[in-house]
Each structure stands twice: as structure tokens, then as C-alpha cells.
Amino acid sequence: MSDHGTSSDKFRFRYITTFDLEKLMSNMNGKSAPGTDGISLKMLKSHFKHLKDVLVHIINLSLTSGTFPDSLKIARVIPIFKSGDPLVLSNYRPISLLSSIAKLIERWIKHLLYDYLESRNLISENQYGFRRGIGVDEALFHLTKDINSLLDRGQNGILLTLDLAKAFDSIDRDILINMLPDYGFEGKELEWVKSYFSNRRQVVSVLGVDSTDSEIQYGVIQGGTLAALFFLIFVNRIDRLALKGKIYLFADDTAILCEADSWSKLFREANSDMELVFQWLSRHKLSLNIQKTKYLVFSKSPSKKTLNDHGIKIHTCNNSPYSNCDCPSIERASSIRYLGIHIDENLKWEKHILQAALKIRKYSHIFYRLRSCLSIEATILIYKALVQSVIGFGMIAWGGATSGVLNRLAITQKAILKVMARKPRRFPSNDLFQLIPVYSVQQLYLKSALIFFHKHPNYFPYNRTNQYPIRLTSQTIIPAPLTRLWSTGRHIYNSLPYLLRSLPEDMLQPKNFTRSAFKKKIFTFLILKGHLACEELIRFLRSDIFLLKLMKIWDSLLERQTRWLSFLSCMYSKELRLVQGNK
């Protein structure tokens, strides 16, 4: 087996059984709308006992013959208005509805293909989109961890975020099919994919009236379950480019992080990486949206404010990257929205937290109306869907912000809870969280951190070198990573050991619990501690980081003192030998 992107094994179909089909359908949403044939998944589920043998035969016949039925290739596209001028077509989002039977065939192929790709490590480890067990939190964790790491080492950094124009709709199917033999496709499996993409047609439906059908020649099949997986295969090899920086992929959301100890070297490497990626996109017939492609500069050096002589361009000419050409420049921004969160160049998270507070504040009037017609239990469910989901999104990345910044979000959260509970503005916060059993902002961060620790204990392989054990029991030593900067010490990767110190001993062994059991443990731990105690806990965590830094400074002073005493001792010995020699 070679590295990701190629396979010496062959991908083979496995015929579906009645048991497989029943399990497959149980995991599918029965409320999805039907395609042009009018057969809904709900209908198939309701009559499964009578249709199961027919459906198994249809799916297996497709696999055996290496063909996808033409009658299942017609999509109904319904335009959904987003915002703006209703007469502008770009203000509509197309929703593609496919045949339910086609979805069953696709779902089975996806099950086989995904297991094949993952078991052989054929998908890039830097790809976080549309994969089991990893997603936005994992991508943001690694990205922010790497940014904090370069800052702590005194390096300068550039984060490039690339915007691909209509990436899913722009895939060249011939290029994709030519890639598949490297992933183990041959014979009827390869012929099936060719048949799957050929003769695709669609009709547009407005107010129940269908247009004439037209052929779709480009892109993965929108609305189908195989679309995302084929897209991952298409972009999989982009991280095999000889980039100076590190690439982060979430489907078509691409970021590149470059670092160097000098500005000239950093911008030279960023320009080089941008040129390599742009050439790769051009070869694969993908377009870069230059207006939405931006970059951030990270540095603890005050010299970053004097970077007017540097820039990043998308070079289509043959000149040097620093020549005075007319190639388009990439905009430098003070903050960038990537994977749903706002990353600022100082990693203070002020903009993201302010945006989150503004978003949930808009829901205040909704809860003002709901409190008179719904029970508090029902209102809490709506609160969790509208408010708590916004607060908790991406918290792995930004939850370590300073208390002053986080307090802006906490104030807005408490204001909404007081509306729900019909309490005055000065109602005590501790009583408020006892009255409405939901997590505070600080509790949500602790919960997110602990669940992430349970899910990915391998993400925290702390090296014992140059670290201090912060808790020693008969079973567990939790080392604490040393950081040079106060801000980098607040990232979950560096601060987690201080949180683990406060846990009961049994919670320090996450593998002993299932995910649901560990969540119950977390709930009990946080609720028993209470809102105020969790705030104090976070303050103590940060004071521990401060004390550890003092220990580091003290060790440094002792080391210098030892070296100085050694130097004086050496000088004294030389003087003594000189005096004895003169005698």
C-alpha cells in the first residue's frame, strides 16, 4: 500500500441483502421530497415488506451490469429564494430532488466506497469534510493549535483562505473518472461510475410547473449522497503539492498556513504556495474567486504594521513574484470568516464573539412571545436550538478567549434567559441558572473541551520533555505543556491538563466510558459545580497557567545562577593555579 491518493488494492462491489437494505433505509430521512417519479422514501418504507425483494433486485442488477438506470438520472430542481432582488437569478439557491430509488443505490455504493477509502487511508489526513468522526471542530482545533504554536515559537505566519467558485458544480467528470483507477476502480466498478455520470438531465420546477429537460455535463450530482465523496476524491491530491505551508481542507473550503522567521521569506513562500495551488486548480478546471480569497498576518512583532512593501499575488505571468506586474493581488484582511467563525489577526476572538452576541440577541423578541404560550420545558428546547447552538459552535477554537471578551456573550445569554423566566434585569445570575437548567457560556466551554478530549484523546500526546506534572496520583500523571506566551497557553491543547486536574479520578480514563455515559458524567460534574463555581474554575485554570510561567521563569533564573557560579568557580580555579605557579 502506498501513501494516500493511490491504492494497489481494487475496489469491489458487494451485493446488498435484505438485512443491509433495511438497515440502510432506517438511517435515511423518510420526509425527503420525491423526484420526478413521485415515489417518496416514506412510501418505500411503508411498503418495505412487499417491496424489499424488488428493491434488492434493482440495486444488485445495477451493480452486476455496471450501469445506472437512465430513468433514475433525471433531477427536479426547485429554486429557493435567498435574499436581495427576486429578479436576479444568483439570489436563488437550487435544490435538486432525485429519485428515492436512485438514493438507495447511491447510499449503498457510498457505504462500500467510504469504508474502502478509509480502511486504506486513501483520503488525505488534512481533509476534515464529510468524514465520520471528524468535522468543523477538528479542523478548527488543528488550525488554531498550529497558529498558536508558531506564535509561541516567535515565528511570523500567514493564513490564506481560498474561495472556489461553484466548486461542486464545476467538477470535470472526465478528469474525475481518469483519477479513479489510481483509487482501485476497474472493470464493472469503473463502468458503473461512467454510467452514473452519463446522460444526466434535469427539469426546473416553479410553482408546480416543470420545464423541458436539459443535459447536465459538469459537476458531481447535487442532491445525491455520492456527490461529497466524489468531490473528496477529486481534490484529494491537492495536499500532495510541494507546499511550504500546511493545507487544511473542509470539502471546498481550503486554507494554507505558512510560517517563517522573516517577512521576506514568509511572503516569498506564501506567493510560491499560492502559485502552485492556482496552477493545480487551473489544470483541474476549477476557478478561484479572487475577490473572496484573502489572507491574515500573524505575529507578535510590532513590525507587522509596516508590511506595505509585501503582498501576495496570483501570478499568471512568467515574471518573478516580486516584479511589478499587473497580476491580481489577494486582499489582506484583519479578520477572516473560515468554517463559520471569525478569525482575527490577534486571535482575540472579539469579532466572532460580538457577531454571536448580535445573532442571539435578535431572538429575544421570540422568547418574549413564546413564554406566554409554551411551558418552560418547551421554551428551553427552542433555546437550545436557536441560542445554545450559536454559542457552542466552534468553541473549541475560541472558548479560551479572555474573560472580558467572553463576558459580552454571557451578558446577552443571561438577558435572554431572564426574558424566558420573566425576571428583572438585575436578577442574580446564580439563581437564574438554577431556575433554568441550561449551561452558561463557561460551562459550555468546559463541556466542549471534555467531550473533545473523550472523542480524541490521541490529539493530546503531551511530550514529557520540558513539562511539569500538575497532578500526580497512583494512576495518572498529567503533564502540562509550557508556552512562552500567555495567549497561547489559553488554547485547549495547552490548557486541558489544568482542567483535567479538577476532574474526579474516574473521568481521567475516557476510554472506560461510552460517549453518552461520559456526557452524563460531564453534565453531573458541571451541574453539581454550578454556574459560579465553573467561572471560578476557569479563573483558577488561568492562574495555574500563570503560576507555571512563574515556575519557568524561576527555573531560568536558577539556571542562569548556576551557570554564573560555575563561571566564577572556573575563574577562581584559574587564578589559584596562576598564583601557585608564580610561587
UniProtKB/TrEMBL annotation:
PROSITE patterns: RT_POL (PS50878). Transmembrane segments: none annotated. It comes from the Eukaryota. One of its GO terms (biological process) is DNA biosynthetic process. Residues 61-343 form the Reverse transcriptase domain. It holds the Pfam family RVT_1. This is Reverse transcriptase domain-containing protein.
